[in-house]
Amino acid sequence: MKDQEFELTFHPKPTLRKLYVEITARCNLSCVMCFRRSMKSPQGDMSEEIFHSILEGTKDFPHLSEIVFGGIGENFVHPHFLSWVREAREKNLEVTIFTNGTLLDERKIEALLDLDVSRLMISLDSPDPLGYDQIRGHNLEKLLAHIAAFNEAKKRRRLDRPWLISEFVLMRNNYHSLPALVDLASRYDIREIHLTNLMPFTSAMVDQSLYHPALPDDLDDVLAKARLRSFSGQVALIEPEFSLKTERRCQFMEDYACAIGWQGQISPCFRHLHSYQEYVYGRKKDVLAYDFGNLQEKTLYEIWTSQKYMEFRYKIGHGIYPSCPDCNFVNGCDYVLDSDADCYYNSPGCADCLWSRRLALCP
Which keywords label this protein (predicted)? Predict the structure, then answer.
């Protein structure tokens, strides 16, 4: 049988629906599991010119409905953050905000309520003051006071939004506290808890991951208790996987989303916004920053509809890339050393991505 040749033709379309915008790479905390600690990229704030080019570019995408303010930094350290949220809302974009919650005060709370933000996602990795301090280096009681003030302001103004959602990074030293965290979330009107597994960035942190080298014996029991309490407390528990599954799904591809770094670079997802190191099943890997263009040079539409970006989205969306974690040759392969490319010659390389296996959950 003769070899058959196929030709794919890509037709540029304004299919972008969701933007993740990193307005700053700076943060007021230095959490133990944050890969900012191994980040090799520069840290700074997004300029007004870049942000306004983003908003200007939204007019070219009729299905673009949501902007997520988040990235490697803390949004509230940026001096223009609240005014930029206002400008996004004036464009009729739904707004989700990631925050560690430590900088919330009365003025910021009232502003968020005035702006009718959709969701406020707060990092909360322990219901115990000592455990929270060890992870985040901050006082839990102060954070809970901010959340209580936020809820009181919503109640006073008879508002249902923004929804409060917490993010919890699962590690061996905190997963036992998950049922208690569900109870705390119920008391503080937190609607959802998003769980994600730790992605270690040092060899010492590898032993803190739940999925490697073996699952804790009591993990199922802890999760069962947390689920039961989530039902009674009316808190949705969003769980990751804890072992490799055959299915691979990229949430950024499925949501027709992209990530925009503080310097204006358009990356396919958060993972490729910056250069840092991670340990994938104990293997050290250099994740390299990768972008398909920069808003300082091209428009959002030009970048999204570029041949290279469209081809990348097609391949990832259809699973046309290898799988490193369960490959027989992984221990002798140079492709797994960094994310520059994979053995199918895709660039960037997504073959080692544990987010696509739902071991780590995209925000």
Answer: 4Fe-4S, Iron, Iron-sulfur, Metal-binding, S-adenosyl-L-methionine
Integer angstrom CA distances of residue 206 from 36, 64, 201, 202, 209? 17, 38, 8, 7, 6
Buried b (16+ CB within 10 A) or exposed e, 160-198: eebebbbbbbbbeebbbbbbbbbbbbbebbbebbbbbbb
Tell me what percent of the chain is helix, strand and coil, each rounded to the nearest 5: 35, 15, 50
In this structure, are residues 220 and 327 in contact, taking their beta carbons and an 8 Å threshold?
no
Q: Which amino acid, one-letter code, is at 17?
A: R
Classify residue 141 as exposed, middle or buried by CB count within 10 Å of its CB (0-12, 13-18, 19+). exposed
Q: For the domain covering 18-357, report its CATH number.
A: 3.20.20.70
Give tens-digit pLDDT for 67-109. 999 999 999 999 999 999 999 999 999 999 999 999 999 999 9
Strands 257-260 and 236-238: unpaired
Q: Where are the domains of the chain?
A: 18-357
Residue-wise pLDDT for 4-29, tens only, equals 666 788 899 999 999 999 999 999 99
Of 279, 271, 132, 274, which is closest to residue 199 (Cα–Cα)? Answer: 279
Query: Do residues 266 and 303 make contact, with C-beta atoms less than 8 angstroms apart?
Result: yes
Nearest CA-CA partner of 124 in 149, 98, 160:
98
Give dist(CA 55, CA 57) in Å, integer. 5
Q: Which residues contact 183 (CB under 8 A, 6 or more apart)?
A: 127, 229, 233
For 127-185, the pLDDT digits (tens) are 999 999 999 999 999 999 999 999 999 999 999 999 999 999 999 999 999 999 999 99
